[in-house]
Amino acid sequence: MNRYAGRVVVVTGAARGIGAGTAQRFADEGARVAVLDLDESAASATAQGLGAEKAVGLACDVSDAAAVERAVFAVVEELGSIDVLVNNAGITRDNLLFKMSEDDWDLVMNVHLKGAFLMSREAQKHMVPAKYGKILNLSSVSALGNRGQANYSAAKMGVQGFTRSLALELGPFGINVNAIAPGFIVTEMTDATAVRLKMEPEELRRLNAEANPVRRVGAPEDIAAAAAFLCSDEASYITGQTLYVDGGAKV
Asked: Which residue in the list 4, 132, 152, 244 is annotated as catalytic?
């Protein structure tokens, strides 16, 4: 498939994990890709390995307005436009409420919610005049509540409300806004969760596989496939939606 030939796709938090897998899928479908991440060297390495027509890796703290403005300017300078934005950047600071610090709360909110807001606000400056754009936000099944993740759950449910609001505002300008809520995906982040729970990553994967109907855990490629559809012109009549990609765990 070559659905993204001539399109410019920006993926945040894309040096590794779901972000890197998503960037790879768009590159495979012909896009020019910008890989944004706090770690500039990792972002550049990922971008170079995509095999895209053209790809750049840029440092960006999505919770900092000036950094976001600089990154989006650099993307447009390097690649010519922004057609698709995937707000994937995320962190966890898991803890039970009575142990959770203000910093734990603020960091998670700033990256997930403020980051999506700042990136979307900057990207729409280019999408609105073009009367075309796709914004995809990453939520999570944790939006429905998860013990020890009050901050993360609140942020990820906030992403869903943010998605519906942007869909209403930007739809008249030819911009579709949707979200994906992944279930358990094998990444460094979920491996870190296993360590926090004092178990081996393989054991956590096994338990999660047994807990859903398809009897397996997800991979970044599963999320990337859904992203490639929702950001395509085939999905132009879909907006304001959150698609749960979780192996049926929440059915």
From this structure: 152
Tokens of 174: 């030819």
Tell me which DSSP letter residue 15 carries. S
Could you confirm whether 152 is annotated as catalytic? yes
Domain with CATH 3.40.50.720 in the chain: 8-183+219-245
Q: Which of 165-179, 201-215, 218-232 has the lowest mean pLDDT?
A: 201-215
Residue owning tokens 């060297």: 41
Collapsing DSSP to helix, strand or coil, 175 comes out as strand
> 10, 43 in Cβ contact below 8 A?
no
Give ∠ CA 209-19-64 in degrees, rounded to 5: 130
pLDDT at 117: 98
Compute the average pLDDT of residues 40-67.
97
The CATH topology of domain 8-183+219-245 is Rossmann fold (3.40.50)
Residue 190 exposure: Cα atoms within 13 Å on the Cβ side: 22
Residue 246 has pLDDT above 90, yes or no: yes
Least Cα distance to 80 among 36, 33, 48 occurs for 33
